[in-house]
Every structure is written in C-alpha cells, then in structure tokens.
C-alpha cells in the first residue's frame, strides 16, 4: 500500500506510489538501458504477453482449424473457431473472476477499488454487474472476435493477406510478436478517443463505462458497435505479413487478455510475492474519471495530448474541468 496521503489515498483501497511514473519506452532522448529493462520484464519473464504467446502456439497446434480448412467458408471450421474462442474466454475471464471474487484468493490486497461487484442495481442488465458483463462479453464479444478471425484466416488461406512462416522469415516472425501489443496500444488510443465523442459515448461506450469498479468480465463487456470498432485492430493482418500464430496472439490479447488487465488488481500474488502483472492504476483512473488516460502506459499519447491523469488530486481537478468543457 502506498504511503501517500490526500484525497486519492482516501478514495482507493490501494494505489501505487503517486504521481504515476512514465514507463513508456517512447522517450526522447532514447534510453537504451530503460528499453532493455522493459524488454526483459515483458518478454524474458513469464509475463502476460509471454503466457499469451505460449497459449497462441498451443492453440494453433491443438485447437484451431488449419489454414487449409479456411479456404472456403464452411460451418464446421467457423463453429470450431467460435467454440475455441468461447472456451478460452470462459476459462480465462471466468477463472480470474473465480479466484479473485468468488474464492477471494487474494482478499483485497492490491485491489484498487474498495467495493465488490455490484448487485441489485437496475443500471445493469439482470440487475447484476457480473451477469451483465458475461452477457456482452460472450454474446457480442466472442461472436465479433470470431468473425474478424474467420475473415482474416480466409484472406490468409486464399492469398489475399500476406503470410509468413518462422523458417522463411524468423526475424520478422519474432519482431511481429513484440510489435503487436504496441500496435494495439496505438490503435486503442485513437479509437478510444473516438468512442468518447459525446454522441458515441452516450449511445455506445457508456455500456462499458458502467464498470467504474472493474472486474475480469468487464474488460470485453462492450456495446456491439464498440466491439466492431475496437476489433478493427485485427485488420492489420490483412496488409502486414504475419502467421496464424500472430493472428491468434492478437485475438487472445484483445479478447481474453482484456480480462487479465481488468481484474481490478495490480498483480497476482503467490506466497505474498508479485508473480504476474495484471491491471494498471493508469487504466483504473480512466474508469473512475472517464476523460483521461484513453490509452495505456505503452504509448505516450495521453502525455503528449494533455489527457494524462497521474493519480494526483491536481490530475483529478484537471480531468473534471476537461470533462465539463466537453459536455457543456
């Protein structure tokens, strides 16, 4: 628990040291040592990204249909793709929800918000936050995630999208895995800013923002129009050479991966030691104060464009003033 005092410390169950530091690798002048430490932390330890890459490789070998099967649209392989996506979402989001909110395996240690998931509130479908989030995640979410994946596999299988293999281009194969989360962060910032245009926010994005106190099922709980916009990040595979493993990693990162970053906890503790980074206070501030931190810590856009909330009381005041200007 941070030792900081002030209004922010009173509002949260836990927050890291404030004001938030700048962890982006996109700094000037470049800092090679910082970039090297970032790479080690994200790619040479058992991080969320490494776990999703391993899962992508195993899923491609064992679970998803082959590219040969995807040459023509057919119910069998399309249903198989949907079923795998549904299963992975249930296992990852459901498993995290079970551990943190049903078993309470970590109590409230490193949990940002003091509250539990909401029940008995008509704001939510079924008057239940978790049921609402499960409905939108598994309904619209998995369906549209599968649709983008199916179309992309069909394009790859028929030569309309460039495909590589590890043997033909090992350097780009590895580099593409590193770049996909960076591309995702770039894309997310700009479509997220679009979704906060008042008309889109009111009719579309507000569904996701019911989740002020987030949980694993919150990450992929969106209005169908937002799912459509959010998942256009996968269209990069239509024009940039990749392998089905890259596509699956990207699918996992956007879908089940969102459950990992929305647990409401900063890290997973095992024997009182931080073993896996999960959510960030950076994005938790967005869910609390709305008009700030549209991107994530990977890209510096919020700092460059004046929408960064550093967790301080001053940052809250600036964010509330900006929100008032936007909606006045």
UniProtKB/TrEMBL annotation:
Q: Where are the transmembrane segments?
A: 50-67, 79-101, 134-157, 169-191
Which InterPro entries does UniProt cross-reference here?
Answer: Fatty_acid_hydroxylase, Sterol_Desaturase_Related
What is an example of a GO molecular function annotated in this UniProt entry? iron ion binding
Task: Classify the source by domain of life.
Answer: Bacteria
Q: State the GO CC annotations.
A: membrane
The reply on keyword Membrane is: yes
Cellular compartment(s): Membrane
* Keywords assigned: Membrane, Transmembrane, Transmembrane helix
One GO biological process this protein is involved in is: lipid biosynthetic process
Query: Do the record's keywords include Cell cycle?
Result: no
Q: Where is the Fatty acid hydroxylase domain?
A: 178-307
Stored PANTHER family: STEROL DESATURASE
Q: What is this protein called?
A: Fatty acid hydroxylase superfamily protein
